[in-house]
Design a protein that fits this description.
Layout (H helix, E strand, L loop, with lengths): L9 H9 L4 E5 L3 H9 L4 E4 L3 H4 L11 H14 L4 E5 L8 H13 L4 E5 L5 H9 L4 E6 L5 H4 L9 H17 L3 E5 L3 H10 L4 E4 L7 E4 L1 H4 L17 H17 L12
Parallel strand pairs: 1-2, 1-8, 2-3, 3-4, 4-5, 5-6, 6-7, 7-8
Helix pairs in contact: 2-4, 6-8
This protein binds 3-methyl-2-oxobutanoic acid (KIV).
Length: 268
């Protein structure tokens, strides 16, 4: 008998840590890729604000708006049957309590199961308020791209004692405020290991080593569809850019050479 697939929920994600089973997470921004990601049983689909860079061509995630996020979230939602769907709160969408609640609610109304927010102690009260209203929150610590100009670029965070302590304190702070998980981005693997061992909620690593409770990558990086920034942690499992380029060039040449459309592709 075919195994019945279950919709992934927040309690299932939290339990994975207790069961010592790794959590898989990928980003998606459109229907067709989200459909494939959902189909293979990836646990969490994140409509990340990396959308701005890999799909919309912005230089950073800063310009991304709520309306852009929601537009893509709705497309991804139409393809997402089983994975937990998380919407990423873009820069400037959670500066005040009313804004944060309103925008988190908009993600839930668009079909998300949870939202993600970057930051630690400075967003503690907002995380608490949102989770109290029944909206699950995933935290995001370490190299948080919305603070890129403060960090001075894509740099590993928490290398020194003070930085490591800050990330550790922030992680506990998010857990206390009610977050159900936390992304750790670009931090030394030993720091991610100790945070993951001490926290009750699962950690999801990106450039944070193998000891996190789960892993996330930007799908465009994994597929070789985005090469403007190539961080060391972003393993390429395919080079789709090359495959696409070759197909596009073949088409172009066949049109020029009057080989396409042949009779096979024409109507009598
Ligand atoms: O926006 C995004 O894609 C993210 C992941 C890198 C975690 O926040």
């Amino acid at each position: 008998m075919k195994e019945q697939r279950k919709k992934i929920t927040v309690p299932i994600i939290k339990n994975r840590k207790k069961e010592n089973k790794k959590i898989t997470m990928l980003t998606a921004y459109n229907y067709s890729l989200a459909k494939l990601i959902n189909e293979i049983g990836i646990d969490i689909i994140l409509v990340g604000d990396s959308l701005g860079m890999v799909e919309l061509g912005y230089e950073s995630t800063i310009p991304v708006t709520m309306n852009e996020m929601l537009h893509h979230t709705k497309a991804v939602k139409r393809a997402t049957e089983f994975s937990l769907l998380v919407g990423d709160m873009p820069f400037g969408s959670y500066n005040t309590f009313p804004e944060a609640i309103k925008n988190a609610t908009r993600f839930m109304k668009a079909g998300c199961d949870a939202i993600k927010m970057e930051g630690g102690i400075e967003i503690r009260d907002i995380v608490e308020e949102i989770t109290n209203r029944g909206i699950p929150v995933m935290g995001h610590l370490g190299l948080t791209p919305q603070k890129l100009s403060e960090f001075g670029g894509f740099k590993v965070q928490g290398r020194d004692k003070e930085g490591a302590k800050r990330i550790c304190d922030d992680a506990f702070c998010l857990q206390k405020a009610g977050a159900f998980s936390a992304v750790l981005e670009c931090v030394p693997m030993e720091l991610a290991k100790s945070i993951s061992e001490e926290l009750e909620i699962p950690t999801i690593g990106i450039g944070a080593g193998k000891h996190c409770d789960g892993q996330v990558l930007v799908t465009q990086d994994l597929l070789g569809l985005f090469s403007q920034i190539t961080p060391r942690f972003a393993k390429r499992y395919a080079n789709l850019s090359e495959i696409i380029l070759s197909a596009l060039k073949n088409y172009q040449q066949e049109v020029i050479d009057e080989k396409f459309p042949s009779e096979e592709y024409s109507y009598k």
